[in-house]
Amino acid sequence: MDFPQLQEQIRANDYVIPTAGQAPGYVQANLVILPADWAHDFLRFCQINPKPCPLLAVSEPGQPLLSDLGVETAVDVRTDAPAYYIYRDGQLAREQLDIRDLWQDDFVAFAIGCSFSFEEALVMAGLPVRHLNQGCNVPMFISNIPTREAGPFGGPHVVTMRPFSPRNAIHAIEISSRYPKVHGAPIHIGDPKHIGIKDLQKPDFGDAVNINDSEIPVFWACGVTPQMAMLAAKPPICITHKPGCMLVTEITNQTLSLS
Amino acid sequence: MDFPQLQEQIRANDYVIPTAGQAPGYVQANLVILPADWAHDFLRFCQINPKPCPLLAVSEPGQPLLSDLGVETAVDVRTDAPAYYIYRDGQLAREQLDIRDLWQDDFVAFAIGCSFSFEEALVMAGLPVRHLNQGCNVPMFISNIPTREAGPFGGPHVVTMRPFSPRNAIHAIEISSRYPKVHGAPIHIGDPKHIGIKDLQKPDFGDAVNINDSEIPVFWACGVTPQMAMLAAKPPICITHKPGCMLVTEITNQTLSLS
């Protein structure tokens, strides 16, 4: 589905499934919404942990529109993801298709870059991305690499893993390094034990993928990291996109590239 | 020694030793000089093998000055390397401090990028470069990766190896990828057997360096590749810089960076 159609259906609550592969070329983002008195620490957390939490946009308190992510119209964080999770005190409380009824005048919205953008660049460069070719979710692992703490926010880096031949791994590093706003270059390559991962066939989230003997696992910081940090901090209320059902924006992946 | 002093001493034949670490910030280059009837194939060889043979400049036939590599004065390939090797029919015939007496009006000079430039960028970024810290030459290996052939020129890629922690390896790939004119990103990481290297402690050229258990060997294409191709092609005459005694240019490493 192309961008205008997808945005229209999401806004009408007619599109309620994962957004992977939809609106090719357009940036999709992780969404975190917090009350203003929690937002300052979360903003600091993102800024000192840019690999897992690359900030694409932050709203003013009470402002649900993100003009930086729109071209013709601003992105409305209340309606522009297919579905939302509402957490209370760090526990999932319910799921909604939009959050117009829940909006508070002290809410601050954070749009955080998502690996879909650099994956598109990898595919365009002809690199085989295993989980895409296997038609499943990217495998994600809770590593032993700590984030830098800010107030109540901290915890480990969650990482995604994509296996590549050595030559393709180098190429994938080159390409993703040009996209610092969507996790940028990997944070680890090679031996998973080095970062506290015991078994690549048992991801903490997502699906296991095949890895050939001659391939090297390549690990990128993942946008689930700030979600885990938020859950552990237990804010009285927090709203995020439903996993996989990303905030769809009107800017293109191309605009995020350094080159 | 800074650049003007080094250039002056080299031109006066007062500086006749390796140039590593001298004139920091300035580009040093591999030099290959061939008669015009061999130069066309060699030029094609460089252009289809840009990783081992990144061309910085090529002279017109009979022209010993490379204006592209000079700012105030052009580089004179007859005098601007500390020492030269003269090969006849692929055999080292003699060594000279300059080649003014040997210059022919059909000679074509090729200045080929050298890893000194990206090594400087790695050091500036705070990455530890093992052979520099151990005070020896970089280890070089004849790999089983073939070059693409052009006329009589072909043969295997020679590679340099630098060991890094996984995180520093990623950073080294990011940095060197911004310097395509001086070998660019690596061509292999990880298992040396994958590219036909049996023992990292027995380099074909240069010196062995320590590798820690948690480190990954990273392999870059090397400027010795075109020299080996030239030797195997056995041109009636070929002149190169003496190994380690590079052609010193007046352009800065900074100007070679993509960013």
Automatic annotation (TrEMBL), chains A, B:
<dbReference type="InterPro" id="IPR009906">
    <property type="entry name" value="D-Glu_cyclase"/>
</dbReference>
<keyword id="KW-0456">Lyase</keyword>
<dbReference type="GO" id="GO:0016829">
    <property type="term" value="F:lyase activity"/>
</dbReference>
<dbReference type="InterPro" id="IPR038021">
    <property type="entry name" value="Putative_hydro-lyase"/>
</dbReference>
<protein>
    <recommendedName>
        <fullName>Putative hydro-lyase DFP90_105152</fullName>
        <ecNumber>4.2.1.-</ecNumber>
    </recommendedName>
</protein>
<dbReference type="InterPro" id="IPR016938">
    <property type="entry name" value="UPF0317"/>
</dbReference>
<comment type="similarity">
    <text>Belongs to the D-glutamate cyclase family.</text>
</comment>
<dbReference type="Pfam" id="PF07286">
    <property type="entry name" value="D-Glu_cyclase"/>
</dbReference>
